[in-house]
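This part of the workshop introduces the protein records we will be handling. To make this concrete, we reproduce a full record directly below.
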Amino acid sequence: MFIPLHDANSLKHIKLQYVTIALIAINVIVYFLTALSDTTMHAAAYGLGYVPAVVNDVAELPPQLVLVPEDLTYLTYAFLHGNVFHVGGNMLFLWVFGDNVEDALGHWRFLLFYLACAAAGAWLHGAIAPSSEAPLIGASGAVAGIVAAYLILHPRVKVWVLAFGRIPLRIPAFIPLVLWVLFQFAMLVVGDDSQVSWGAHVGGIVAGAALVLIMRRRGVPLFDRAIVTPEAVETAETTAPDGPAVTDKPRWGRQ
């Protein structure tokens, strides 16, 4: 329904979102390396993707496809993508919204946040379909966590989006993001025959919403409470007391 393009939200605590940029670069490089052939893609999807039946000891991979320990696939799956639209869509969301979440958390906490949301997405996917032998791949769980965090941090920031893929609009972030989040939950309940893991999306959303509350920098406000509106400025001016300014130094005792 909405494709994000740009947000008018400057960085306040960091100069450059280098973790976000590095994650995008890694995802793109891994995609092009694994997309060299169908054989390479198949081996990567099963060897690095999250396969619930394998992790839950319902099935085993052929020895030649075992590339990493099973538990590590909770993370490695998030760096694989099936096609250019898959990786492009996820990286676009990461580019638009990731920098401000990284700004609010700090570089290293943001990296841990990203990986934790990815793991949460894989966990819920596996809990819903524990015997599935299809590999889960894609950064959608981690990106869903970033969307949830951005919604909690900056719901009133204006973002440029393409509505229905063709109409450019500049609207508050909460409009497209709330609709996006509700859509993920609705699709998880309704279900469909597509290859999209709505469970991974919802797992990432829940993890992102919870983790941003405890991982953000001290003093970082929620829900854009730091934004000063014209109405607030006018109210402050009309209610400010007359008279000379008062310093914060005490007028008694030694200074």
User: Anything to note?
Assistant: The two ends are 62 Å apart (CA to CA).
